[in-house]
Amino acid sequence: MQWPARFTVRHIAHRLRSCSSLKEVESWYGLLLKNGTAQDCFLMNQYITACSHLHAIDSTIFAFAQMENPNLFVYNAMIGAFVHYFRPLDGLWYYVLMLRNGIRPSSYTFPAVIKSCRVLSFVGVGTSVHGQVLRTGLPLHVHVQTALVDFYSSLGRILESTKVFDEMPERDGFAWSAMISAHARAGDLDSAKRVFDEMPENNTATWNTLIHGYVEAGDVESAEELFCRMVKRDVISWTTMINCYCKHKRYREAVELFREMKSTEIRPDEVTMSTVISACAHLGALDQGKEMHLYVMQTRSNIDVYIGSALIDMYAKCGLLERALLTFFKLQEKNLFCWSSMIDGLAFHGYAEEALSMFDKMEEENIEPNSVIYVSVLAACTHGGLVEEGKRRFLEMTSRYFILPGIEHYGCMVDLLCRVGLLEEALGLIRSMRMQPNSVIWGALLGGCKLHKNLEIAQVAVDRLMILEPNNSGYYTLLINMYAEANRWSEVARIRAIMKDRGVLKIWPGSSWIEVKKKMHQFAACDNYHPASEEIYSVLDVLDLQLKLFGYEPYLDFVL
DNA sequence: GTAGGGTTAG
């Protein structure tokens, strides 16, 4: 079949660009082949770009491979497509191919190449590309220079960023944004603000960049102030601010700001939704989380991996493990984070075996685990008391995936060994660590000592804890209780004296909270602040009575 | 070519 004679090349290019499905694009490729125009660089460039927009990177690679003489534009499209789909190494590979084939790169080639180097942290390659840019003798190009500003600042080489920026003959919003971001990355918010103020006309992106800079620097107040002063906020401004509250554990404010956002005409996108669902997870706000889930389902056809992971995590943290599982199995696309949330949810609810078999299933699907997921795997072993399994997985982590254990993995292992009474082995593991053990590690050991009544090792742990957290009364109290239990009252007096001497204060008691009908209720031990306090305590009394009827004896050894 | 996203041991 020939296409109609009235179709010019330009006509076809336009049709290719406006395709909305891969099937449509592919059928155009069939036509290109039949008409013998599959070697036409201009048309193939359009085809590659169209595929790239539709997430079909494999089709672009195939089409490229069929071409005998791809030109500069085709290479540029390929390199751009790879960067767009997070395959920077392939992008650089095509760049090298291009040079080998004697094609001179243009100003449209370099930004993608430099970005690839930035993503891969290829310092040497990036610097050499900068040299190539200078040697081409092309006039300085604002896109290339912006990419260089970004490249150097991501390496912490702010002076070079500034130099490139200062040499720029003209600067657009992107360039200013990159420079503000460069200073912010270096932690120099004063300079970031100065560049922001120097800029002739600020745009939404530069405001957002600066706000994000303050968020990263931990200056929530400045971020808030800027956000309030903004005249034209877009979805990124709102999301940045919602994320700001999440980063600083002010989840309630995050959800409140989201509500405020919904009263404007700005629509939340995937990033906003995953952030706010995660905030609900941390709050244990099930009703609100469900509402977000509903909103997501109403407004989009499928759930992306970020929102999927956030939902799984939210349902698991709110106690609805079945819902978490349902969400997990319904996901069309799953990545490591989806598996991670699911495995962690299972482990958290005590389903150790299930968590481990889920992990094995993930391996079968050729998803490479990272160090974080191993924390959940080891925690599952701890909660299930699976010592041998835990040891095996701990070793496998390094031997199979080359993941060096971090302090949190040691934490899990120490906890695992301690709970079953292997205290010496735990101490040996602590001594073999590549890093300085922190209070969590010693705390886990102390917990094991308490459980298995080992005063000698407990003393070792407390000695370390007194140095690491001298003001935490909890560890002292625990040791006092242990000595009291062993009737060693002189030791009790000795530690009490140390506490008094060091002025160790009793810390505030921990509290818990629950959401009922979108209202948060907070409780601390023995408090009577809640309006329904009396009623709650009477229910507790009933529960207490029922427990006793079932033969439960409260463990009062440590209540002195 | 610039700006916003995720899970973790006690």
UniProtKB/TrEMBL annotation:
PPR repeats: 71-105, 172-202, 203-233, 234-268, 335-369, 472-506
Domain of life according to the entry: Eukaryota
Protein name according to UniProt: Pentatricopeptide repeat-containing protein At1g06143
Gene responsible for this protein: LOC110012566
One Pfam assignment: PPR_2
Species of provenance: Sesamum indicum (Oriental sesame)
NCBIfam families cross-referenced by the UniProt entry: PPR (TIGR00756)
MF terms (GO), sorted A to Z: RNA binding
Similarity remark: Belongs to the PPR family. PCMP-H subfamily.
Gene Ontology annotations of biological process type: RNA modification
Keywords: Repeat
